[in-house]
Amino acid sequence: MDDLEYREAFLNGNSKKVEDLVKNALEAGVSPRIIINQALIPAMEIVGQKFKDDEIFLPEVMLAARAMQSGLKILKPLLTGEQKNYVGRVVIGTVHGDHHDIGKNLVAMMLEGAGFEVFDLGANVSAERFLQALQQHQPDILGLSSLLTTTMPKMKEVLSLLETTGVRSKIKVMIGGAPVTQEYADRIGADGYASNAGSAVELAKKFCRN
Ligand code: B12
User: Which positions of the chain have pLDDT values less than 50?
Assistant: First the structure.
């Protein structure tokens, strides 16, 4: 796998090229997880860095995000497969006001791949909608994602609503997203934090063992 090729394809917003690179890597026997962790995520990190440094702007980031989704779409069925005896049930979503969903999608995909039943509510999800989904699906775990410092407080809002409605003690809440930290999770009273999809799966497994 040539990292530079992925990076260029992302920066050019070339979804077709990303699809071809992913297909070629699969044909060459590279595992979906390696493609995600060693090619797609690093390429997206470069995009994030360049955006931060004002070297590229929002339209380019949007195209890069679309390229990432194209790559993930090919890999998703290979990661998940049919599962009958679920390890546990998870409701996941990105909090209200936040439209970033790539990282959350990855966590959902990896959880499914590890044998969890996942109900993905998407992005920009209100606290009330989370509550409704918890009542409907009765999961073991709720996963909250936030990529903006301005939407992080929405996680606390969800937790407060679960507290006042008596649902909080019935589930484990794990949180994540680039600006989120373990310290923040402790501060708002979440049960756990994970910095990436792999650790999120480990954490979810731990919750379901206890
Ligand atoms: C792609 C992107 C976008 C895309 C999103 C497309 C999409 N469908 O998601 C678009 C172009 C739409 C976008 C828009 C904006 N963005 Co933006 N975006 C990014 C970028 C470059 C990459 C994010 C990403 O996908 N990373 C790749 C994934 C794989 O990583 P991840 O999301 O961190 O997820 C991993 C972990 O965090 C963790 N995780 C994630 N969720 C969860 C959940 C749980 C439960 C757990 C356990 C773990 C977990 O596991 C994931 C997988 O390993 C980041 C830069 C960055 N460094 O993060 C900026 C960034 C997040 N955006 C930023 C900004 C400012 C914006 C805008 C406000 C820009 C604007 N002026 O309009 C808007 C906001 C729109 C909105 N209301 O949501 C800032 C946020 C700054 C801040 N401190 O809040 C960043 C940091 C860029 C920057 N340096 O300035 N953005």
Answer: none
